[in-house]
Amino acid sequence: MTRDAGYFGPDSVSWQVHREVTVLFGGARAVLMQAAHPLVIAGARETGFYERNPWKRLQRTLMLTYALTFGSKAEAHAAADRINEVHARIKGVDPVTGLAYDALDPQLLLWVHSCLVDSALLFEALTVGRLDDAGRQRFHEEQMLAAELVRIPREVIPPTVPELRSHMQGVIESGILRATDSARRVAQLFHQPPREAEWRPILRGVSRLAFATLPPELREMYGIPMGPAKRAVVAATFAATRVLRPLLPSRYRYIAPYQEWRRARAEDGQLPAARRSSAPAE
Questions:
Q1: Cβ 77 vs Cβ 219: under 8 Å
Q2: pLDDT digit string (tens) for 51-110?
Q3: Degrees (nearest 5) of the Cα angle 13, 17, 22?
Q4: Do residues 151 and 145 lie in contact, with contact meaning Cβ atoms separated by under 8 Å?
């Protein structure tokens, strides 16, 4: 029986981008950017994000997000409903800025969404490099559907990738972003991952890449210097990743939801036998 491939499916750019573990690492950059918005991090703080195993909370949030891409339509809606239910309860006044926040505010949701899209596209370019401008635009347009599922009106989303990045730069230049104590605690999660964190041995390296690829204004906020030597190391690391990535076994290249889909497809006899344990055609 053919499984419902959800809103996107294996031929979509969203699957092509989000299946990559190296693109998943770009999620660290997105979280750091989101945490720099005091009204976004105020909502995260209200949920008790930092208590009772914060890394597990990060992982659960990420899996809900990936359910929107790789899940069936029912799973995508269930994941969106869970996200929306949590957001509906989060509102208050931020003690740092004195500004009111509401987790269903379209502009706050747009910042969170934009950071995810921009970081995914950046890490795809740096570690995979398959997408051209048309592919990046298609990814952006596909992700607008995921955005609508979590109550971001399509009309507030900049329609093109350059316009999305211009919008993000406008938020940066507005002066609202800052490295609050809460933002620095998020950064510390990446600097010193807890023992229970999956992939812990490489997360420090991932965090260095995440900090290095932040917009310059945010790197300065977090106190991350980027001299010529560090820039050269980061560039060499990304170059090596692009060379080595295609040589890795699929269990290291692809995230779990995509691997589960491949296993299910193989069991249904929809993958040729010679390809069931290897990566799909590039």
A1: no
A2: 545 566 666 677 777 888 999 999 999 999 999 998 999 999 999 999 999 999 999 999
A3: 170
A4: no
